[in-house]
Sequence to fold (274 residues):
Amino acid sequence: MKNYFFGSVIYPNAVSFADEFLQSLNLQTFKEFTLLLINDGVDEPALIELINNYNIQYEIISYPNNFTPAELRINLLREAKLRSAEYLILGDIDDTFSTNRVEESITALELNNQLGFVYNKLLLMNGKSAMPKLRSETKDVECILEYNYLGLSNTAINMGCMADHFIDSFQECKSQVFDWYLFTRLLLNGAEGKMVPEATTFYRLYGENYAGIPAMTDNMIDKEINVKLEQYKLMSKYNDNYKILLNRYKNKEYDINKGKEKYFWWNLTKMKNE
Fold:
């Protein structure tokens, strides 16, 4: 039997959303997976009691509440690798999912075992689109060079492209946007991705959500620039295009993307045309 895991991180401020998350997993059309839950400081007996209300196989790995968000996600990848996971479907504890998300993700990965990852569309909880139509394929970093649509709640990874030393190298990342870092590294390492058009992640916007749908404000633009500088600095040693981006953003050689009604993550700004 193959090892399929659904991975997430739970933390005290998101406990109130856990019931909806678990209901969503309980309703999946394909049920032969294990929930791999990294516990960041939540009372474990209470968590076990909650999960036992559902017909879900699960493992909880508890950590003291002193890890960064990036470290917790790296540990999630490590724990999945230690368990010889074939595929790891990722989902944030504050989101929910279409009932076919696990099945569609696994089917797409099984049909093409050369894929590094798959991804699905994002809708807000009210059913409205969170992003424009996503690319059907993601084959190189140019696709997510200045913005991102590959998150830790709408992707599934073929763990065959995640060697132990590769996961260990992620320790360099202290960024709040580990998802952008992770999928950039995968693409730079030769992995390719494909969209799963029939599956959906329902994306919750609230105060804890670092990558929301941004308003065109000075604060949001400053936040984006800081995120981009951090991302480009990390990536500069892997690809020279990021050195160019880093220098140009440092020198404020960017334009503001005005007049957009829908956003990818981190596309309030774009590099000036030469």
Observations:
- The mean pLDDT is 91.
- The helical segments are 18-26, 44-51, 69-82, 101-111, 164-168, 178-188, 218-235, 240-250.
